Amino acid sequence: MTDKIEIVGPQKVEGIVHISGAKNAVLPLLAASLLSDDSLLLKNVPPLVDVQTMLSLLEELGASFRIDNERVDSQKISLKTDSINNFTAPYEIVKKMRASILILGPLLAKFGICTVSLPGGCAIGVRPIDLHLKGMEALGATIELKDGYVHASAPNGLKGAEIEFPIVTVTGTENIMMAAVLASGTTILKNAAKEPEVIDLAECLNKMGANIFGHGTDTITIKGVSRLHHAEHCVVPDRIEAGTYALAAGITHGKIDLIGGNLRQLLPSFIEKMEEAGLLFTDIENGIRVESSGTIAPIDIETEPYPGFPTDLQAQTMAMLCLANGVSNISENIWENRFMHVAELGRMGANIEIHNAHAKIIGVKKLTGAQVMATDLRASFSLVLAAIAANGKTVIDRVYHLDRGYSCVKEKLADCGVLINRLK
Ligand code: EPZ
Fold this sequence. Notes:
alpha/beta, UDP-n-acetylglucosamine1-carboxyvinyl-transferase, Chain, four-stranded mixed β-sheet, 15 helices, globular, binds ligand EPZ
């Protein structure tokens, strides 16, 4: 894929988008295949760069897989991990994708050993993994940090424990849950993450023979079992992709039908806030219709763990609020540096003031096209939304970020009457 997108605005979004499987569900599900003595068949897998990265990591460990295309934006992947012969996740792969850390729990549980590079920093902040490591130690693993790598071992297997997370961590919850599945005895996770992607992973693990309950609440109980067997699982729809396209209708005063998934259940706070901003939501057959009321009202947002407002929709929502008829406020409470898109939106005429973790967005009448640069996955779509609504031509650079987490963007936007060009 090229690295630049050119968009000439303003354009109006009117059409239908099929929501793909969730990136943040499929990544832990792929790692979970390492726990099984048999194969794992995943359906509704989105064809994303991050999925390719996780598959190449699993292959590096000795796993094998087969990919069959279901639709243009969804694949079936059958994984076999009965010949794992390497237990190291190298820096070259981990630096591309922090979620590589998700192999730690499964490898420790199944093989009693794992060496994984410490994640490099990334655009949205330091993103430590201390809670993952403390959780593994609580289950009886030995953890040593050396040369930028985590050396983890549990030669006598893992033992169930009670673990309370000091802060909600999504992949931390997922990693420890996977490790606990094959531990001896029972593990109780307190202050666990309640995200739909955590629930999806627990559901899949239970289909594989695990014994997990309480997922979706802040206390998850995992009773260890001796082995996991073949299972088939359909990946939950991507609520962040859905929210992103809902915002495309909002920022262009358009209308969009989002097909797939129960979005009122997947995005409760987001829908509540969007209704406050003037978007209208109507349930339709197998989805939801999102219509602009013609104006964008200013709103105040605090990003929080599920069921609060998702941090992964913060940048995209800010783009729409640049055109609100008043002053909006966003507090980014999850990541310490997730305002990289603000300077780029400013180049398009947005009026945004940053004070530490708070952004004050003073609505303007219009945005104008400009040369801008994507800095991270969600920021890249924030710029796409602004460019679609802006007057004139925008060229967005470094859009490889976009391909990490959104599939078939050009096609899905074309289905809604929006033309974008990937520059050769
Ligand atoms: C997951 O990241 C998502 N990624 C992120 O989505 C999402 O932004 C985040 O959860 C919050 O919802 C995947 O699921 C693959 P956390 P994760 O552990 O698990 C601190 C996207 O755009 N923390 O819930 O890495 C951390 O610094 C991505 O799709 C520790 O201090 O996030 C942060 O402030 C971006 N120590 C907070 O907890 C730890 O050991 C929440 O992080 C772990 C986390």
